[in-house]
Design goal:
mainly beta, 7-stranded mixed β-sheet, 0% helix
Length: 112
């Protein structure tokens, strides 16, 4: 059974950092393209970052480029999103996606 479980969200001040985790069961993250998305209140879900099976050519939305970093731990079958220099506009529910499946999301709130 496929399951993606996000964690690591919370309340952080502008300029702060968070690390989101996506623990996967039911398939191997290193064999699939894994993506992070986010959805802010009243807005459509938007793609944030992806890591391909090779792990080499990671891609980022322009709005997070240079501040966010996607990675994975093959031994833990987990994907991460390291978020730095956070801004209020990064406030959203963040979702992990892989092999057509979604996690439940984790809330990130950036506010002073």
């Amino acid at each position: 059974q496929v399951q993606l479980v996000e964690s690591g969200g919370g309340l952080v001040q502008p300029g702060g950092s968070l690390r989101l985790s996506c623990a996967v069961s039911g398939f191997t993250v290193s064999s699939n393209t894994m993506r992070w998305y986010r959805q802010a209140p009243g807005k459509e879900r938007e793609w944030v970052a992806l890591i391909p099976p090779s792990g080499g050519y990671k891609q980022y939305a322009d709005s997070v480029k240079g501040r966010f970093s996607i990675s994975r731990d093959n031994a833990k079958n987990t994907v991460y999103l390291d978020m730095n220099s956070l801004k209020p506009e990064d406030t959203a529910v963040y979702y992990c996606n892989g092999r057509g499946s979604w996690g439940q999301g984790t809330q990130v709130t950036v506010s002073s």
